[in-house]
Every structure is written in structure tokens, then in C-alpha cells.
Amino acid sequence: MSSPATERRILVVEDEALVAMLVEDALMDAGFTVVGPARTVSQALELLKADPPDAAVLDLNLGGENSLSVADALSARGIPFLVATGYGAAGLPAHLRHIPVLPKPYDPADLTVAIDRLCAGAR
């Protein structure tokens, strides 16, 4: 019998290869299916359009490129997401300040708990 996590697909938007691998490993270990990781805004938007995930982990800064357009696209589609960033909630524009922020660096267990919460709230 599968757990609820195995039915959830999580889009990972992260440009740092090592961080992306750690996020991917943590999510897969928790039973989630990982979409991506997307390393650029255009990759993230393509993945979002092609096969919308159940939730997402979004880094705000992708190699100097701002990913707020991805946040807006996720919001417009009603896909829950959290922002993983070293900038804190202050880096979010006012219309996104309700989005959960996971400050970097973070423990992988904190990530999976946060994603569990996002997915539970989306049911």
C-alpha cells in the first residue's frame, strides 16, 4: 500500500547542483516523486506547464535570475509551494508574503515536514 507522499509530485527549482541533489534525495527518501530539478526560470516554467506538480520548492535566486515569475505561475495555478532562501521573507514581494519560507541552510527533515504540511493543506 502506498503512502500519501508517494502520490505527491514535487517540483524542485534550485540552481545549486549540490543543494538540488540534497533536496531531491530528502524528498525521495520521504516517498515523494521529484519533478526536475529546474535550474532556470525557463526550465521551471516549462516543467510547470508540461506536467503540473502537486507542490513545489522554490529558490528565489537562480544564478542571479529572480524566480518570482515562477512563484506567480504557481500561485495562479493554485499549486502550493514554499520558498527556500537565505534572504528570508523580506525577499518576497507583498503579494507573496503568505508563502512559507524555509531559511537556508535548512535540515532536510524540516523540508520534508514543510512539504507534508503543504500537501496536507492542498487536499
TrEMBL record:
Residues carrying 4-aspartylphosphate: 59
Keywords, in A-Z order: Phosphoprotein
Residues in Response regulatory domain copies: 9-119
Keyword Phosphoprotein in annotation: yes
SMART domains with a match to the protein in the record: REC
Gene3D superfamilies, alphabetized: 3.40.50.2300
Keyword Mitochondrion applies: no
Origin organism lineage: Bacteria, Pseudomonadati, Pseudomonadota, Alphaproteobacteria, Acetobacterales
PANTHER family xrefs: PROTEIN-GLUTAMATE METHYLESTERASE_PROTEIN-GLUTAMINE GLUTAMINASE 1, STRESS RESPONSE REGULATOR PROTEIN 1
Protein name: Response regulator
